[in-house]
Amino acid sequence: DWTPDIFIESTVAELREQIGNDKVILGLSGGVDSSVAAMLIHQAIGKNLYCIFVDNGLLRKNEFEDVLHSYKDMGLNVKGVDAKDQFYSSLAGLTDPEAKRKAIGRVFIEVFDQESHQVEDAKWLGQGTIYPDVIESVSVKGPSATIKSHHNVGGLPDFMKLKVVEPLKTLFKDEVRLVGKTLGIADTIIGRHPFPGPGLAIRILGDITPEKVAILQEVDHIFISSLKRTGLYDQVWQAGAMLLPIQSVGVMGDERTYERVVALRAVTSVDGMTADWCHLPYEFLADVSNEIINKVRGVNRVVYDISSKPPATIEWE
Ligand code: XMP
């Protein structure tokens, strides 16, 4: 029978055998998968694991600093790279969701490649690929069937010449969480909702600007903090906010306003392949809506997404 302890013991032994004294480079995303993969490889080879955590300017509010700290606390050898400007300039003017994904994927590879050359003699690329990623990337491969290109699957281009090591390739998400817990990784990382690689760029409909990112970060922060404060966070598979490319009329004091609309989305799911919209309590939604409209300048309307997947997807882009 599968247990996290047995998995860890045998995986760490295999990794040690496979990697020997080689150096491994791994891109951390702040998510569960890359964090657990890193900790497993770290247990096997210690300081020979070089982690890179890129700030693409599309993360949640305070995420980069907070997560970088947790990684350092975990003993990981991690370098934080501020690449916000590179991502913003490559995204400038792009509105098509797939074009945005591709631009982000391209810049990520550039930044990662640049950083990886700082690690002399690296032989391996560590990745947090889990079993459903393997399945999904196969099933969306056909030219007519590309629904959304998940840029974190398929690895980096050949020129990096690194061998790939993917210790979580056979696991489902709940198993990854069990392994992470057993490894002693903090609940704030283990229990974290999935977050897409392209980040807030696919939750801002239309073109991306740093101003829009800042607005959405505030909205998202209010929503997520409220879910945590009320104990609802752990009952939800994934939650977030979308910044819509429209304005609507409102009234504030005696003044007419004409400002942005945000949509909140929370879903329950087992693996992200199908999902139901979450029946969050009305009082909760009312409080979150009030707080957003009162505190976030430039937003005067909040709507709640009541679509399930399929036929809607979890993200709006
Ligand atoms: P959808 O929107 O397809 O999302 O229902 C299913 C799950 O995948 C995440 N997602 C992505 N993750 N790169 C990622 O790493 C992407 O381009 C991407 N698009 C969607 C989404 O957040 C959800 O968990």
TrEMBL record:
Listed EC numbers: 6.3.5.2
- Subunit description: Homodimer.
The lineage's top-level taxon is: Bacteria
Source organism per entry reads Rufibacter tibetensis
- Shown part of the complete sequence: 193 to 509 of 509
For this record, the Gene Ontology CC terms, alphabetical, are: cytosol
* Key words of the record: ATP-binding, Glutamine amidotransferase, GMP biosynthesis, Ligase, Nucleotide-binding, Purine biosynthesis
Role played:
Catalyzes the synthesis of GMP from XMP.
Give the residues the record marks as binding ATP.
Answer: 29-35
Give this protein's Gene Ontology molecular function annotations.
ATP binding; GMP synthase activity
Pathway linked to the protein? Purine metabolism; GMP biosynthesis; GMP from XMP (L-Gln route): step 1/1
What name does UniProt use for this protein?
A: GMP synthase [glutamine-hydrolyzing]
**Which major enzyme category is it?**
ligase
